[in-house]
Every structure is written in C-alpha cells, then in structure tokens.
Amino acid sequence: MHHAGGHRLAAMLAGAGEAFASAADRLTASFPPAVAAFLRLLLRAWGALSVPLLRGAVMLCMAMSVMVLAEKVLLGTASAAAKLLSRRRRPGRRDVPVEPDVEAGGGGGSSACFPMVLVQIPMYNEREELVREECERWAGSGVDVRYEARTDRAGHKAGNLTEGMRHAYARGCEFVAIFDADFQPSPDFLARTVPLLLRDPGLALVQARWEFVNADECLLTRMQEMSMDYHFKVEQQAGSSLCSFFGYNGSAGVWRRQAIVESGGWDERTTAEDMDLALRAALLGWEFVYVGDVKVKSELPSSLGAYRSQQHRWSCGPALLFKKMLREIVAAERVPAWKKLYIVYNFFVTRRVVSTFFTFFFFSVLLPAKTLFPQVRIPTWQMVCVPTATTLLNSAGTPWRRSAHLVVPWVAFENAMALHRFKAILIGLFEAGRANEWIVTRKSGNGRPTPGAEGRRLKRRCRLHWLELLVGALLLASGCYDCVHGHGYFYLFALPQSIMYFAIGFELLGVHHTS
C-alpha cells in the first residue's frame, strides 16, 4: 500500500509539473523569442521550487507556532500563579496606609518623614490642557509645581525627562514618578507605590496597571483594550513574578532616582526610551515589580492613524534596541544566565519578532498560497489546534462577559496589524529611514467628546494603505478560489480576514478627526 501510494504521489506531482510547463509555454508565446525563453526558464524554475519552498515554510511555521504557544503557556501559568498568591497578600492597598497630604496642608505631622518624589509629566503641544495656567493656579495654593519649557524637541520624550531632572529642585528627590499627559492617577497613588521602594533597596521600578476611560468609544478602542489587558494582566505580571523584569511602560511608574543615574539616564537612541532604561537597569542587577491592583486611568488612541503611529513606535523601537544591546545583554556580569535567556529568547525574539512574523506570514501568506498548491499539506494541529489555543491564551486577560463577542474581529484585527508591526520591526532591525521617527500619539481628550465632534467624524482624509489593500485582495481572491474549487473551508477564514485588511487599508476603523 505504501509503495502504491508513493507511485500515485509521484504521478500527481509529475502531472502538475507538466501542466505548469504547458501553461508557462502558452503564457510566453506572445513575447519575443529571447524574452520568452527567459520567462519560460523563470516560470519552470518557480514550478520546480514552489512546492519545496512552501513545504519548507510549513516546517518553519510549525517551529514558530510551537515557540509562540510555549511562551503563551509560560506567561499564562506564571501570571495565574501570581494572581492566586496575591489573593493572600496584596502589597498595594492592604499593607500601605494612606497618609495625609502634608504638602497640601493635611495632617499635623512633619513632612520630614516623607521621601521626596519628583512627579514628571512630559508633554508636547497638549491642546486639551492649559498647562501654564493650571500650574500657576496650583502654585498659588501652596503646591510645589513647576512649568518648564524647552526651546527645542531634541531627544523627544527622553529629552524632556532628562531636562526635567537637571533642575536643582529635582536633584533632591529620591524617587521619580512619570505620567503621560492623558493619565489620571488617584490621590493615593504614591502612598501605594513608594513604600514598596522604601522596603526594598534593590527595587528600581514600581509599575502600575493602565485602565482606559474611552474603551467604549468605538470598535477600535474596544479591541485595543483587549490587547492591553493581556499585556498588563499576563505579560507584565509574569515578567514581574518570574524574574523581576519587564518592559517599563513609559507612564504610571515610579523609579528610584539612583537606578536612573546608575543606568546612564534617559537615552534618545531609539523610540523605546522607556524599555531602554529598564533594560540597562536590569543588566546592572536592579529589580522591578508590577502592581496590578494599582490602576491609573488613561486614554486610548481612537483614530486608526494615531494607533498605527503608536504601534510603529512600539514595534520599531524595541527591535532597534535589541540590535544595539544584544552584546551587552550576553556580556552582562550581574545577571544570571537564565535571566539573560528570558530577556533574549522570551522578551525579544519570541514575543516580538517570531510572534509578529508568524502571525502575518502564516495566516496572510502561507495559507492563501496553499490553496494553489493542494499537494502542500498543513497538519490540522498546526492549522487549527495551535492557533485556537494561542487565541484562548491571548484572551486570558479579557473579561469574557464584556468582550467574548469581539474575539473574532479582534483576532482578525491583530492578524492584519501584524503586517504593519512586522514592517516596523524590519525598519528597526535595519535602521531604515523611519527607525527613529517620533510622532506624538494623538488622543481626543479624556474620553469626552468635544463640541462638534460628530461633525468632524464625518470628515476624513482619503488615505490608503496599499500593503494592507494588496494582502486583502490576495486573501479575497484565494478565499473565492477555495470556495469555488477547493475541498476545505479556508474561505471561512480568508473572506472575513480580507474584510479586516480592507477596513484598515481604507481607514474605516476608529474615529476620524480633522486637523
């Protein structure tokens, strides 16, 4: 039986090769002889190589899918264990009493028992705030607040933070709390985070969780909330629990000033200045802790253009940082080997590069190509079981009662955005022209609609994203071909996925604002 099956397979491949060669001859018949001969050579070479190349791609995707799934299982297990243990002892609210605000005149004690904390709010052209007037109003009531303006944008956010720490009043502060302009920390934020730094002199950073005031603004913000929930509840929690290391989020965190200084301060060499500082501090032996029960309200970008700019920065910056610091990570003497392995393999390679490439290539390139080459087989476990398990683990941080109905569009959206993210990763790795492009993420303003917002939403620039439109067209064509000539159900995936690509390509998602 095996021998007969081998003969049938050989006959099928030979027949396919002959059919391809015949089609190549008909296609090139209208060209001049020399051009036709060259094209026939190329087409026949592709006909001979296409199936082996696709089979090699299937094997590569098998390995990558296992890497991604294993990392998701590791993070999910670690975060779940940390959550179970935290039910017994929560260091945030239960262990830290909220003291009166001495600076604001509350309580009768002396301020000498309180550590000095510098609160920095780096910003650029924040139209929703009258910053100077607000600072003057608070200063008039006795609060020590300063409005500092730079003459240029050198270094972007890293430059702002560096400049802020150069002032004499800042040098006397033991800790530094940082918030982006749209963040709204609760009055007890410092009382719930700073004591953790006081109790552990080896702790450099306390990172709080973000929550979003405009998550219900549109479908785009709802899907962002699902992704960010996983990032904080699983990725950040797992990193904190496993090896006291994770990427600093750039806001809603409190740093020990000594750790910032020893690590070399803020660096503008990439657009991931927050991760850059965290990585350099970790290589010196400093540790971080994530406190998920301390939540800070913030805002999600509600326009697709703003979201794409943010994702470009968040994907390109870490890729460039990894390229620049790989040797330093490997050579670090204060970090154990297992922690280096976690940083290189889990934090950078698998989570950022492999996961992004696999998501785009497997679902948007390999599966459509397979419809044209039925002799290329993809195991069911790879095509169905692993993606399903990965999706379930990715949605572990999302309350199912709230977002279960959005899982399908969210998966399609993440698959489509993987193209944009992977392009940004390549730009970062090769230090292409946009590697250090910094575009401030535009937000609508605290989740509150501004006057005339509905009218502005109807106006939009016709901006097309051609790569997304091209991939959407390929998925649509392959889905239609599979529906008519195929023997499977690939079209059930390809057609909805193509719709999401078109929605991104034509910028149909999110709220549209005029400039």
UniProtKB/TrEMBL annotation:
<keyword id="KW-0333">Golgi apparatus</keyword>
<keyword id="KW-0812">Transmembrane</keyword>
<protein>
    <recommendedName>
        <fullName>glucomannan 4-beta-mannosyltransferase</fullName>
        <ecNumber>2.4.1.32</ecNumber>
    </recommendedName>
</protein>
<keyword id="KW-0961">Cell wall biogenesis/degradation</keyword>
<dbReference type="GO" id="GO:0047259">
    <property type="term" value="F:glucomannan 4-beta-mannosyltransferase activity"/>
</dbReference>
<comment type="function">
    <text>Probable mannan synthase which consists of a 4-beta-mannosyltransferase activity on mannan using GDP-mannose. The beta-1,4-mannan product is the backbone for galactomannan synthesis by galactomannan galactosyltransferase. Galactomannan is a noncellulosic polysaccharides of plant cell wall.</text>
</comment>
<feature type="transmembrane region" description="Helical">
    <location>
        <begin position="343"/>
        <end position="366"/>
    </location>
</feature>
<dbReference type="Pfam" id="PF13632">
    <property type="entry name" value="Glyco_trans_2_3"/>
</dbReference>
<feature type="transmembrane region" description="Helical">
    <location>
        <begin position="466"/>
        <end position="484"/>
    </location>
</feature>
<dbReference type="GO" id="GO:0071555">
    <property type="term" value="P:cell wall organization"/>
</dbReference>
<keyword id="KW-0808">Transferase</keyword>
<feature type="domain" description="Glycosyltransferase 2-like">
    <location>
        <begin position="176"/>
        <end position="365"/>
    </location>
</feature>
<dbReference type="GO" id="GO:0000139">
    <property type="term" value="C:Golgi membrane"/>
</dbReference>
<dbReference type="InterPro" id="IPR029044">
    <property type="entry name" value="Nucleotide-diphossugar_trans"/>
</dbReference>
<dbReference type="InterPro" id="IPR001173">
    <property type="entry name" value="Glyco_trans_2-like"/>
</dbReference>
<comment type="similarity">
    <text>Belongs to the glycosyltransferase 2 family. Plant cellulose synthase-like A subfamily.</text>
</comment>
<keyword id="KW-1133">Transmembrane helix</keyword>
<keyword id="KW-0328">Glycosyltransferase</keyword>
<keyword id="KW-0472">Membrane</keyword>
<feature type="transmembrane region" description="Helical">
    <location>
        <begin position="490"/>
        <end position="511"/>
    </location>
</feature>
